[in-house]
């Protein structure tokens, strides 16, 4: 199992750049799997606290029920528009895939999940701005960097 704290310990610079992408706005996107296996996309908030990445939802939310049934999820950071006159200024986007582990509910009955990491990806424009740099981290395999032109 790999948690956010494991990524921070192994690749602190990469972890900080990923976390910064998730911090640009309050809400990002989470993908879960419906009962029939089709994807469900939901807005969600992310919390990086005590070495964990956590997500939550209101009591009885469908995304929480999805995670109880099938804990696989994908998270996408909030997005920012790239200025047309300066595509190289785009700071990139981050994605995290993982397994949700439900935590005890708070008094309000909402759902909280701790995310076990299975993949973390950061994509950004390279220097010069004629290619993409794709960095990906997987537990047990470490950090890899690819260039796409």
TrEMBL record:
It comes from Micromonospora sagamiensis. InterPro entries: F420H2_bilvrd_red/Heme_oxyg (IPR052019), Split_barrel_FMN-bd (IPR012349). It comes from the Bacteria. The keyword Zinc-finger does not apply. Residues 75-94 are annotated as: Disordered. One of its GO terms (cellular component) is cytosol. This is Pyridoxamine 5'-phosphate oxidase. Keywords: Oxidoreductase. Gene3D superfamilies: Electron Transport, Fmn-binding Protein, Chain A (2.30.110.10). The keyword Zinc does not apply. GO terms for molecular function: coenzyme F420 binding; oxidoreductase activity, acting on the CH-CH group of donors.
